[in-house]
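As noted in the main text, all predictions were made from sequence alone. Below is one such record, for Glycosyl hydrolase.
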Amino acid sequence: METAKIKELVSRMTLEEKASLCSGLDFWHTKGVERLGIPSEMVSDGPHGLRKQDDKADHLGINDSIQAVCFPAGCATASSFNRELVTKLGETLGEECQAENVSAILGPAMNIKRSPLCGRNFEYYSEDPLVSTEMAGALVHGVQSKHIGTSPKHFMANNQEYHRLTSSSEMDERTMREIYLASFEGMVKKEKPWTIMNAYNKLNGTYLCENKEMLTDVLRREWGFDGYVMTDWGAMNDRVEALKAGCNLEMPSCEGATDAEIVAAVQDGTLDESVLDKSCEEYLNVIFKYEENRDKNAVFQHEKDHETAREIEEECIVLLKNEDALLPLSADKKVAFIGKYAEKPRYQGGGSSHINSFKTESAMDAVEFLATVKKENITFAKGFDDVEDKADEALAAKAVEAAANADVAVIFAGLPDSFESEGYDRKHLGMPNCQNALIEAVAEAQPNTIVVLHNGAPVEMPWLGKVKAVLEAYLGGQAVGGAVVNVLYGNANPSGRLAETFPLRIQDTPCYLNYGGEHDKSVYSEGVFVGYRYYTSKEMEVLFPFGYGLSYTTFSYGNLTVDKKEFKESEKLLVSVDVTNTGACTGKEVVQLYVAPKGGTIIRPVRELKAFEKTELAPGETKTVTFELDSRAYAYWNTEIHDWHVETGAYEIQICRNAQEVLLSEEVQVESETVLPKVYTLNSTMGEIMADPKGKAILEQAMSEMEGMDGESTEEQMQDDSGVINDEMMAAMMEAMPLRQMLSFVPGVTKEALNQLVAALNAAE
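Prediction:
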């Protein structure tokens, strides 16, 4: 509907009708105004499947929803590093929403993985904001191409489940901009999501639902968001303040209570009615965007979408280890499938994203229909039961026996439902003790042991050195079994890469000392050093680094070129590199480009991911992958100018296998085009002034005029004839010396002369 018509529609509404549009009708529906033709619409939980509930509604996945398709969770799809694949997932979800008359799906979930302990990490994409915003953007693009709204969440800094309704995420401006806002920024600017869901938590003491800086200043004015903002379910604090801040819709229903607060605020003058009008216009624009593009012929194609779920998961699986090229398995091998998850896989997390899958495909189901494998070559032993972490000696003994009588043992292990879910955080990185013990026992009986992991976040692997291969399947959706079997037997070549670091232990994580917080304050003292930014900067050993993943083929890199070596920050840089498949089978490689500042005055990570591309290569094939970098590739957030800033200096363009393995590099020189405002005082240091070309000239002139009566220079007057202070020490002292100290150390210098010097320095600026 045209903007003018929407404005006209709002003008015909009563104050009470306008206020009514600011809250839900019930748990899943928005309100309508029947007399004006404004419809009530349904929204539904996601983000990796359609959790549509009609009756017995809840927000934690307790009650059943319609039978639908569960796709791989965000932890898995991010590992695909494939924008096109995630776009296809979005298109499929959009078609399902059209078929079920759902106007918007609540997702994607795209908070940064600050700690591997966050109970909801299985829904989130990455510890890296570029991967997060690119993967989320691809999903949003796919869904909205089918005229269905998305609601990226949880905006922002929702990085823990502990006290998520009351906790305040305390962070500085730079950390916010470079990590936590950057996770949303690219997606919002490029894909224009129809809605945004704000987080439960506070940001620096202010609830996100009433945070004007985030919802209006950043989201709308700076990034150009033009949809409506809704609360997470039950996240409203102060309704009138939230409306002023830019929060349009409270969900679920408030039973009219906060609608009345809005009416009263307008009537007593504490809320300008124009704010309410604008909110209604933003809301109606989205409602009619859906209503005018309804596809009444859409059909939910369950079986087709199940195949799509399997196709997606095949590209998400990460091959973490493959000693002696044990994988892929040959069809004639006798294989023991061990572990409960081989028969009943754990393929999704708990909480609001829980899907009522119309069917589940386990590895045992899938291998039954694998034509190349003889069924008598496959045996199954349950091995463990994950209801509680308690070893079952009888089950374990049968598993060990099955493994010993086979050529290969494949153990399906991971985290049970109780270990990770919305609503609470993990206590440790360990898998259940009974599973670890089983893996150790099986590996001792069968040297050719493979572990397949079903988990939503990193785990410790105390048995890693005793098994020959590890596949990270993550929470791979309802078709995970078929995808895993296809990878095990080489029908699919694993091409996933870790979108998060697997640390050796929880004590190594950057926020270990502060995670969870105290007194409902969680202080982000690690700043921008999140995930690999921390581990690489400290040259710290990890279990598996960010970006890591193996393949059944091999790749080589060469001919890294940049189209210029020196340039101004406003100029684009074209980077190209040749990638060759040097193995015997077709595979996909994730080309990762990092930028490493070589010096500068700002404390920064040693390298940061700035571009990536996934490319498919046949054996012997070479492709040239080209990236275009703009100024953001070199910029940091400057808190003095409250904007992105590029420091003049050298930067290394690095092509990496993963965050810790640099393959090729080229150094470039970037010239800043922004002059930072500078105000000098008597506390400004000599080094600070000398670093400024204008300041250097003025200071040198002033110092020559301040020479002593005997003609000695200022530096000579400060020399120590005893030899205790050498030249290096003198240089360091001079660099760090504030101007005011010249009063103490340089005879004849007056405060008046120094004030004149400061005035001259500031005039030059």
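The first strand starts at residue 43 and ends at 45. The radius of gyration is 30 Å. These features were considered when defining construct boundaries for the mutagenesis experiments described in Section 2.9.
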